[in-house]
From TrEMBL:
Pfam families from the UniProt entry: FliM, FliMN_C
InterPro entries named among the record's database cross-references: CheC-like_sf (IPR028976), Flag_FliM (IPR001689), FliN-like_C (IPR001543), SpoA-like_sf (IPR036429)
UniProt-recorded name of the protein: Flagellar motor switch protein FliM
Superkingdom classification of source: Bacteria
Amino acid sequence: MGEVLSQQEIDALLSALSSGDVEADSFLAQEEEKKVRQYDFKRAVRFSKDQIRSLTRIHEHFTRMLTTFFSAQLRTYVQFSVNSVEQLPYDEFIHSIPSMTMINLIEAPPLNGRFIIEVNPNISYAMLDRLLGGPGVEVEKIESFTEIEMRILTQLYKRAFSSYGDAWESIAEIKAEMSAVEVNPQFLQLVSPNETVVLISIGVTIGEVSGTINVCLPFVTIEPVLSKLSSHYWMQEANRRNASESSKEPLKAQLMNSAVEVVSLLGETTITFGDLLHLEVGDCLALDQLAKEPLSVMVGENKVFKGQVGVSGKRMAVQVLHRVKEEEQ
């Protein structure tokens, strides 16, 4: 809505129109110009606002996991948070990152191809300094990484980014794994220069050092799960989970009425087939279990309880002593 004119401004405008100093056609032309909006075909908008919001929620979950992981690894104050989520051409992203940085290439089936998690060099050196016993200071000028530094950082990021798939658990079952590491973005041609990518900028604070981690997701990479990045899908999943919860009670009631076979195993022994053929009434077999030892109570083919044989009234019975541990089963 435009600015509200005062009474004096309205009078001056009407006076100018009546005297011919200002023409009404000029106002109409201004209104027409406002209706025209520029569109850059090199920056094609391929993600809806709803999908961008879903990606933001996913990576907010990812930042919480990174905060927990790096706080334990570096033993200092660490904070990760999503700064921005935008879509831009891949070429623009490549030219926006430093010439010497840590570019981690991630494969995450069933997503297509690979995507990038780029860690700013000052953040990498602060992490490296903490891992090697230092205070975690920032390096002003970074020319290159040594082989030892690359090895340490690669192992650290491989463990950290393996949890990326967990952030997508509400959308799809994804298993993320780091496949390669690059330091020079000019040698990396992941997709065509004009391909639209989603850039998630994550702010990082390690002690007194701050920087960014960029997650670059090409459109072709997340296209298999793109239809699930909508509020409509999230609502359907919520309704499906609620329906599943409501159907548990009838299933539980039916399960409680199911009949199962329970057998008390007195013991076991091994004999030859020849001895088995010559067994007669009154022959005794030595079992591999003492009479005072607890018996195994079988449910189906599984040892579930340990019991003690006895009598209940005029019937033989087994008293349950305790449940068998899982490793004993």
